[in-house]
Amino acid sequence: MKLIKAERKHAKIKVCLQGPSGSGKTFSALLMASGLESDWNRIAIIDSENGSAHLYSNLGDYSVINLSKPFTPEKYIEALEMVEQAQMEVCIIDSITHEWESILQEHSSMTGNSFTNWGKLTPRHNAFVQKILSVPFHVIGTTRTKQDYVLTEKNGKMVPEKVGLKGVQRDGVDYEFTLVFDIDIKHQATASKDRTGLFVDKPQFMISSETGRLIKSWCETGTSIEQVKEFIKSCSDLEKLRDIYRKYPSFKQSLQDLFMLRSKQLKEVEIDISNDLINLNKALSNGTTNSQ
Fold first, then answer.
1. Whole-prediction pTM value?
2. Cα Dmax for the chain
3. Strand, helix or coil at 141?
4. Which residues contact 142 (CB under 8 A, 6 or more apart)?
5. What is the pLDDT of residues 82-132, one digit of tens each?
């Protein structure tokens, strides 16, 4: 545990697009992706929507990973690892709703205590969410929404009342994203959560490639991963290397190999210095003995 100065770092945005069927989530995600990365060859879609990702192939030469049922968290994690190995810059997950529906279906088919069963399923879902947050590329996840209702009392009777759209995912998952856009059936978007400050209190708008470019500009302010690489390479001792490791937690996973390599190099230097000191002490000791 250590107190350090706050510092903005280059970020890989994690965005959630929420909307009902037909609101244009996939198309909006692709337009946003094209603003985040101009090279379509570095954009990928993880598709669980029965091949809907292929419908917009006229936009550019992006890549698609087609998932098949059951849409388990492990399949999504494997797909994200494939995207990482391919060194993509943007990944659209269309949609993350199917992961949660798969979890719910599995829970309903399990026998025994419901609470105990959730203890087995929750870690798998959490691993999926953590994978989204840790990957070294931009992620745009789409979530299907449904109208939510609550019972309220009117004139002595309990009647259902609309309380807005609710994403079909585990409660609270939207808090994990940096940006959450709610898209209506007319393809108009509003930001219901915005840590960037770019879209706060802004009127409804249609998501475009310009939206992606604005987000990219925000992401690229602060310390970049290339700068952190140079900090690691030029580090002169293990304690300073530990400081860098603690200071830039968002880069821990993507730079793990470089951290390990530099740590090994510095340890070897320490051993060499230690051996030199031992030899020097022996030489001084022998010199003292001979002079006597």
1. 0.72
2. 110
3. strand
4. 16, 17, 18, 19, 25, 26, 29, 92, 93, 94, 95, 96, 97
5. 999 999 999 999 989 999 999 999 999 999 898 999 999 999 999 999 999
